[in-house]
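Before the break, one more example. Copy the sequence into your notebook; we will annotate it together after we see the structure.
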Amino acid sequence: MSTAPSSLEPPLVEERIAHRDVTGLIDPDCVVVIGATDRRRSVVAEAIAGGGRAFLVHPSGESILGEDVYTSVRELPEVPDCALMLVGHQAIVDVMREALEFGIRAFVLPGLGAESGAHAAEAIAAVLELADSYDAAILGPNCMGMAVPNGGSMYVANVPKTFRRGHVSVIAQSGSIADAMLNCGPRIGFRAVFSTGSEGNRDAADLLMGVAEDPQTEAIGLFVETVRRPEAFADGLRACAEAGKPVVCLKVGRSRVAAQAALAHTGAMVGSSVAFSNFIHHHGGIEVTDTSTFMEALEILGQPKWPTGVRLGAISESGGECGMLADAAEPTGLEFPPMPYEVVASLQERFPNFLNPANPLDAWMVDETEVVFPESLELMAYSGEFDVLLAQVDITQYRGDAENDWCLAIVKGLAQATKDRRIFPAVTTVHVTDPPRRIASFAAAHGVALLRGTRASVEALAAVSAWHPFTARDLDAHDEVDVSDLLRPGALTEHESAEIMERYGIPMADRRLAEGAEEAVAAAQDLGFPVVVKMNGPAHKATVGGVALGLNSVEEVSVATQAFGGSVLVAQEVASGPEVICGMTRDPHYGPVVAVGIGGRYAEALSLTATSLAPLTHDQAVRLVRRAPGLSKLTTEETFDAIVYTVLVLSRLAMDHPTIVEADINPLILGPNGAVAVDALIVVEDPEQ
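Here is what the structure looks like once it is written out:
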């Protein structure tokens, strides 16, 4: 059996689509609050704080907070970049029209939600039609707004004093999650937090592109309920990654109940969780699955430097916590390299009580904590063998002052050891409570991440450590294969499916289509025994007894053919070997997903597959096959290349023929010199279903 070549040339680069401007929402120089009243005093105060140019408008003209109030936007001395609309549904259309005619092109619309009752839909439609006619951007409706630290927020809830400035921007489709970001305390420094609401004419995809171009944003948190425009969303993710800005994405709707809730809330399709995961990774994002890991990842990315690798060097006040830390790290891909020999020797020379220094290092009671921890950290950092230096120390504001004294000494030692080195310093703790203010202040000033919860912290470290800036992918060019004569709506027969695979270069078991026993016997004699006879049906033939294996005589072939009835496939029996499943399914929202894993009749039950969004480059296909659980143990160099080629073919098939919604090869049997497929299924979209 031969294997087709594993890559083709020359390269193509994925194209970028146009995006909608959100400059006035992200970086307004001048703002106006329309509908400013004393009842909304706190919102008004936040909008005019910070020293930027801000105006207030209300028909009454009554002064608020000592500030002049204009009776109409037409009276303003200049055209603001953005307007916060504190206007009810009865007046919103007329007020919006006046603002648009004056020249305002960006609006924050917190209203037009449930408070507007049955009038909301009509008002929203009118407002969006007006805005679109002027190419104006709307954040909302039904959102919390946009919050920035130190004043200038256009946000309808409280902006706490602990909401501090930094370089992390958050885009949240949930107002409560946006508010949670503002109220997480001073642990993360934010550039801005955007609550997108119902996403009238600007959505998360537009804001992703906007923060990708924003020089004040270096990392992004993204809370997603739905993706309205997958292509634009992918474009925004790629733009952020190409700019060296990681996007940490948390999506709800992974369970059926959550998906229904998201659908009811947003009125938009949710899509499958597996496809979405592949979609995020494919376009350069980082996916997390819970708010704890989300927060820890943002804490990491809020630091002045980030992890650059997966090698952890750790120290702890507890042998048990060393073990817990190692257990949490193992499934994430983080590594604990052995403690370097020179570090072990230095530790034992300096601290004779160290009997067997290992990584993670239990340094408790070896010497004075304020001495042994900082010196151990310095030796570990100096070795150059670690990308992350981590202290597993139980820091909490509820610990005693004496304990927190030496906790602070450990944090100081960690900061000193990693200063001027490309090593990321972090503290993990079993606690999820806030640290004492003096420790938090020191850590923030010296770039030490104080992470909460060991498992969430380790998962966040792993996710961020594995991220790298994105470059436009070079796609393997190839000539489209003509299979139009075989494509028809619905599930194709195995004979048709196998013919398509062969035209794309997949080695298939030699076979013949036979009508009746006489033709089947002739086919078997032509192929040579042993043979396989099977129904020429589309799918799951084995489960209904539609496959007869190991037939060694004319009589056996004749009996099997008559038992099946109708047309059958007579195929050369392939010698047994490790079995692999390769498949593609097209998610209606996110596109084609390619899967590979251990195959055979139990493939679905075992579900030992790795998946990735198409299109795939050759390098991505290689990485995909390597990720499949247990598969690498079954392959040789030749069979590995054969699997990679098969995966690439499925990717190309999906991109060449958008009407193909499913494609399976199961099994692909691995042999001494390559691989051969013995069963194939292709399903074509049926417009009537």
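The chain has a mean pLDDT of 90. The CA atoms of residues 548 and 560 lie 7 Å apart. Try to locate both features in your own notes.
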